[in-house]
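Methods: example folding runs. The two proteins below were folded one after another, and each record is reproduced exactly as written to the output file, sequence line first and structure-token line second.
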Amino acid sequence: MYKRYIKAAIFYHIQIGCSITPKVHLMLKHVLKQMQSFPGGLGDKMEDWVALMHQTGQRLRLRFRTVKCFEIRAKAMSKTIQMHSHPGINDQIEGVTKRASNTKRSNDAASKRKDRVERRIKALMAYSVN
């Protein structure tokens, strides 16, 4: 079943004039095995790390955009990446974030949301009974 969908997708991808990108190659050569081996395949998990790296790279480029010397900019960016991947620093950042966030407010919002959903369900049930 999956093979038919993959072939159709590739056929129409080429038919409309799109080039074969790495993503399309992955679909053509590897997705069938993944879909048969893993329920749902790996498609929804495949690009999370790529998106995260793009976001990190963009933030670093914006942060160091005024540094003219390529070597100094590269060293500063790599030092920043290394510093932010240190477990001790990440634990400290997480602790500060937890202390700074207002968890009571978010818990209250979640509780109100839950109550609202329950009231909607009760109203729908009462409406469908009548």
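Second run, written to the same file directly after the first:
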Amino acid sequence: MKFGKNICILNVGGTKYAFTREVIRDFPLRRVSRLHSCSSEKEVLEVCDDYDRERNEFFFDRHSEAFVFIMLYVRSGKLRFVPRMCELSFYNEMLYWGLESSHLEFCCQRRLDDRMSDTYTCFSDDELMGADEEEARRAEAEDEEEETRPWLARMRRTFEEPASSVAAQVLASVSVIFVIISMVILCASTLPDWDTAKNNTVEEHRIIEAVCIGWFTAECIVRFIVSRDKCEFVRRPLNIIDLLAITPYYVSVAMTALTGENPQLQRAGVTLRVLRMMRIFWLIKLARHFLGLQTLGLTLRRCYREMVMLLVFVCVAMAIFSALAQLLEHGLDLDTSNEDYASIPAACWWVIISMTTVGYGDMYPITMPGRVLGGVCVVSGIVLLALPITFIYHSFVQCYHELKFRSARCVRSLSAEFLN
């Protein structure tokens, strides 16, 4: 530091501290010690918020009470949280002054870890940077479009955001009604008396089905036309599901036109029946309109690592217990062997229903060692399944509050629009 007086004054949130240059040079806090290497006022302002040359006073617009506890750490070497202060806020103050979570006492480290696990879903730095850049580009594009083509932006929000306006809510309600009607027809078509009723009112059934498909097709086409990025629209999972739900109808119509109205030929077509059952994907369209399904999808997307870990746990346990069960029930005594456990793949079914505590009762061990193994398998399944579920639960709660907050914000803007 080649300017100012020998005494340096640190003003942190209105509380002043006086130190000599030598103390500043060797100060344990990195941000404070950086002041000694500053050679100009411009460099000083990169470290602090303001600087008074006459009094050689450095201003930091930070939490004064938190800095008191940080100064206690400088003097005594023990860092604890400020009472009645949010752990995350104090942690932000620590990061500002150049401290890490490892400087905290062990009890406070556990409090911080618990609070962060309840509040945040862990992402890598690359994912966070990519999400921030994508959000910034999207906001910039929306602002530009609002100025050039406001009608297009309004139409896009109407189709993509059900809570953005009254028209969007009406459109979403109509879509839900069509989904329910389609599902009722699909379920009723599997009833034994459906063929007789269909022969009597075949035209009505075809008309209802055609109207539902026409609505879904028109909605999908309009959303594709008004979308900003066509490639991104095609890559979205919900849009792919819409395409999978609509395509089977047109394929079945084309196959009917090519093969004629021969019912025997149509019943023999396995492909046609599979395509018809793919309409069950219409239920996933409800994720656009219901918070619970959106929370489930967002949780699965964010917790794929925990889901893979859960699958690995189950597979490893299934391999171990199925091999032991086959050995104990079938491999040791061939005269009194249990034929249900004739192979390891057959025993895998028993292991999976035992670990999940379902227990259909279709196969069970009959030897004493096999029953002991069954008890160990059940207890192990409860423990192994419970371990990753904790992380998934915290992520589900976080996703639910995040989407609920976003939905409440849209409802407030919708109420203001309605009142205006």
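Comment on the second run: Residues 229 and 235 are 10 Å apart (CA to CA).
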